[in-house]
Amino acid sequence: MVPPHASPASHGSLSEDGILACLGRHFPQTGPSLLLGRGDDCAVLRGGKPLAVSSDLFLEDVHFRRSYFTPEETGYKALAVNVSDLAACGARPAAFTLCLGLPGWVDEPWLDAFFSGMAGLAKQHNMVLAGGDLSGCERLHISVTVWGEPADPGTFLVRGGSMPGDVLFVVGRLGLARVGLKALEAQGRAALDLWPAACAAHLHPEPQVDAGLMLARAGFNARPPALMDVSDGIMRDLPRLLGLTGELSAAGQVSRGSLGAEIMLARGQLHPEVVGYAETNGKNPVHEALLGGEDYALLGSCAPDMLPPLHAAIPRLTSIGVVTAGGGIVCNNEPLDTLADMRGFDHFERKGQEA
Fold it and tell me: Which of 131, 107, 106 is nearest to 2 (CA)?
């Protein structure tokens, strides 16, 4: 890591060397994807394979609150949201960089716990920390960049490529993290007693790496599945998967006309805490599941004949509908574009608007 920028906050007994020493106790210096690791001006990657790369910010009072996130959970989730992107690409996690803006309240016990949570996930996926940067900051600012390698055998998966008649599927729970967020916002960590699975889904999401690798292998000798992770809710992410938002590159989406979807999502497919929380608060549980952001489930489509072997290989894979021609998304025979409150999460909509 390079020397910190101008620091607006004092860190008491902490110093750059002390922070790096704490970090070094949790993260090894070398890994199979690196020729040269952290400690120099640049890391040097071991070449020969294409790499999938993704970056995410994890900002205090934007993505998490210290009032109900422990330091371990903060470190874990800051890396997990990036690992989920690799899973959605069908990539095997390899390494990451970490940039930290640290406020004056940060002390060594907090930092040690933060690195412990992050290092536990990194070890689980054999990821090495290659480098990064440090700075003082008014609020806690975390930026992670990850990279991964293709499955062997396999190819990276992309969002585009869905065709009419393809089966839509998810791997993971829908709406559970949304319930956890709402409960934690309302009740703080006391919510863990009432909604334990939902709070865990928000505080400690599980990236679906193994499922992503299996889906990549399945597409090696066949038309690959289209795949992405659910970070902003099905209502925002499904149109992205289908190429309806103009975000897909020409390589990711072959022009096949406008696509749509027919979703069938029964209450029995939802986690009991999603149903229970929705009913307690006068909400439609299916709508809550479709709106739920930060689920970090995988959302994809595949040819119908690919579904049985995928079901056998990935126990948590659930089919939720079909891709259609002609545009429009319908859930349980209800056109969702007619519902004004079914928008999903957007960082840049008016402050105070419900996510």
Answer: 131
What is the token pair recorded at 150?
């293709």
Q: Give per-residue pLDDT as tens, 246-298.
A: 766 544 444 455 899 999 999 999 999 999 999 999 999 999 999 988 899 99
- Whether 184 and 199 have beta carbons less than 8 Å apart is answered as yes
Question: What's the token pair of residue 218?
Answer: 């399945």
DSSP string, 115-144: HHHHHHHHHHTT-EEEEEEEEE-SS-EEEE
Separation between Cα atoms, residue 114 and residue 70, nearest integer Å: 8
Compute the distance between CA of residue 24 and CA of residue 234 in angstroms, rounded to an integer.
Answer: 39
Exposed / middle / buried, residue 75 (Cβ in 10 Å: 0-12, 13-18, 19+):
buried
Q: Determine whether 266 is exposed, middle or buried from the number of CB atoms within 10 Å of its CB (0-12, 13-18, 19+).
A: exposed
Report the amino acid identity of residue 267.
R
